[in-house]
Design a protein that fits this description.
two-stranded antiparallel ribbon; disordered N terminus; mainly alpha; 109 residues; 50% helix; globular; 4 helices
């Protein structure tokens, strides 16, 4: 392998996708990593469809579901989290809705 090919491979292996960046922020930085719910480990990626469109609000809802939290039980308490998680989705994914095929982790958190 040439030096240029080695460098390109290194860059490809170390660059995070927008979804990797989003997941790093919501899990590592904000703590929304999923939980054991009804004796079953859950993670937001368990809810992602294989095709179609995913909105920021759907994604945020799945984050809460993976934590076993119903934000409607205390909307005042959770609203700032909802707003921040929605904003993170839009910022990292480049819009309010994206093709579900873009929501694939390439990096384990």
């Amino acid at each position: 392998m040439t030096d240029t090919a080695k460098q390109a491979t290194f860059i490809e292996m170390t660059e995070r996708t927008p979804f990797d960046e989003l997941m790093h922020e919501v899990c590592a930085d904000r703590g929304w990593c999923g939980a054991i719910v009804d004796n079953r480990p859950l993670h937001v990626t368990d809810f992602l469809p294989g095709h179609g469109t995913v909105t920021a609000d759907q994604f945020v809802g799945w984050l809460f579901e993976a934590e076993g939290v119903d934000p409607d039980q205390n909307r005042v308490k959770w609203q700032s989290h909802i707003d921040g998680l929605r904003e993170a989705f839009v910022r990292h994914m480049g819009g309010y809705s994206v093709d579900a095929r873009r929501l694939i982790l390439t990096e384990y958190l």
